[in-house]
Amino acid sequence: MEPWLIVGAGRVGTQLARALFLRGLPLAGLVYRSAESQRRAASAVPEQLLLPLGALPQHERLLLAVRDGEVFSIASALAAQVGQGGLALHTSGALGPEALTPLGEKGWEVGVFHPLVPIPHPTHPPVDFSGAVVTLAGTAEALNAGEKLALALDMLPVPCSQLHWPLYHAAATLAGPMLYALIHAAKQELQRANFPAPMVPQALGALAQRALAYALQAQGWEHLTGPLVRGDRTTMAQHTASLTPPVAAAYEALASYVSSSFTGDVPCQGQMPKQAS
Ligand SMILES: NC(=O)c1ccc[n+]([C@@H]2O[C@H](COP(=O)([O-])OP(=O)(O)OC[C@H]3O[C@@H](n4cnc5c(N)ncnc54)[C@H](OP(=O)(O)O)[C@@H]3O)[C@@H](O)[C@H]2O)c1
Prior knowledge:
Largest sheet: 8 strands, mixed
Strand content: 5-15%
CATH topology of the largest domain: Rossmann fold
Mean pLDDT: 93
Strand order of the largest sheet: 3-2-1-4-5-6-7-8
Number of helices: 11
CATH superfamily of the largest domain: NAD(P)-binding Rossmann-like Domain
Distance between the termini: 35 Å
Bound molecules: NADP nicotinamide-adenine-dinucleotide phosphate
Order of helices and strands: EHEHEEHEHEEHEHHHHHH
Number of domains: 2
Number of strands: 8
Structural class: alpha/beta
Radius of gyration: 23 Å
CATH class of the largest domain: Alpha Beta
């Protein structure tokens, strides 16, 4: 694998740079913009691999790990400086390869390398990328390079063509950040209900992990439990009356989503799903 130069010493850039470095994989460097991101990244990546913005044009294999709104402008700025024949990927799940069009017009191979994994901080805790899916798109060369990078990190590359990027990213946001928000709300409300605080993570962990396993193996609503399945409107009204208003609004929105497609087939005991492994 040819060495990658990662542009953007934020969450994704720093964690990917560290993962490559720790595995002894080729890393040309991590390009920072501010002194603050340089200082922060220095705790994760050797200082000699931290490069200022001016280091960019000499490299021909770039991974742009910058915010969605910055990808196109950085690609435009780069296109004005670089020669022909490079390869660039960006890590945004909200944008397709078109966000790198200025480089594509310079003859560069361009694509997307979107890790479907939450990366909450640039340095701590270190992110374990292994086993996570990477969504890939772009030219054949870009797909090939993205696949090699993914496999080197023990990730699962999934090449996609004609992906509807905003919809794809919305679905990923539902399963990651929005799931986090739901659990956050459940924690707050459980404590307001006087459930013993030290037991909250264990109680919700066991419940949520089983619900997640059922939801992932289901075809539809057949493994759903709770008052919605039983058609128990009285209990649901008590729920929304006792939840804090923004959480009650989220509850009602989800209930409305379920009832819009739920057919009311309650599984009997003999049809209970087998436990996910
Ligand atoms: N975080 C996640 O969980 C996650 C997961 C998958 C994909 N993504 C995607 O990955 C991309 C990056 O996300 P992030 O969470 O890493 O954002 P982030 O933490 O805000 O990092 C973005 C970094 O880009 C740097 N930057 C901006 N312009 C630059 C330039 N011209 N040259 C060099 N560096 C520049 C910023 O530098 P300064 O620090 O100096 O401002 C910042 O450190 C986004 O498109 C995001 O959607 C994020």
